Amino acid sequence: MYNDETLYADGARLPLGDGSIRLCRVKTRDEKRIRIYGKKTADGKHLLCMASGIENDDEAYRTAVTGWLRNYARIKLGEKAHHFAIQMQVTINRIAIKEQKTRWGSCSSLGNLNFNWKLVLMPESIQDYVVVHELAHRKQMNHSGAFWQEVAKTLPDYNARRKWLKEHEHEFIKY
Hints:
By secondary structure, the protein is α/β, with parallel strands linked by helices.
């Protein structure tokens, strides 16, 4: 079983969209906080640096990394939602990023969208599917045939994406 120590350890790799990001702990004298920042190496690989003097507190590192990922999700999923909303000719009221055990997204009748931050760990095509799925609820607040037609207008291959999500979602719950 995974634990925070292995998931957020120095050198650990996290999936991120169609790629991954490697965690890098940077030792500092600051024993009160963890500063998180992204960096690209000379060979083009992505690092997520965790600068701190805090030791033996894996939960603090998990909190810091997931905080960075939440902010990343807010930007990334927000951009996707606005892009697809224009394409689908629907409006959005508010977008919230949450951490849920089993839901990847939801849409209220007021146009409020909620997305699970862990969605950004999944491939881009799956992120697109969840965003389009929730935006389709702006036209059909159910899962009727008309709803799936709305999804298919934007993503004709939605069934393959939906199947991938069902088969792989358990791999992302651990984060």
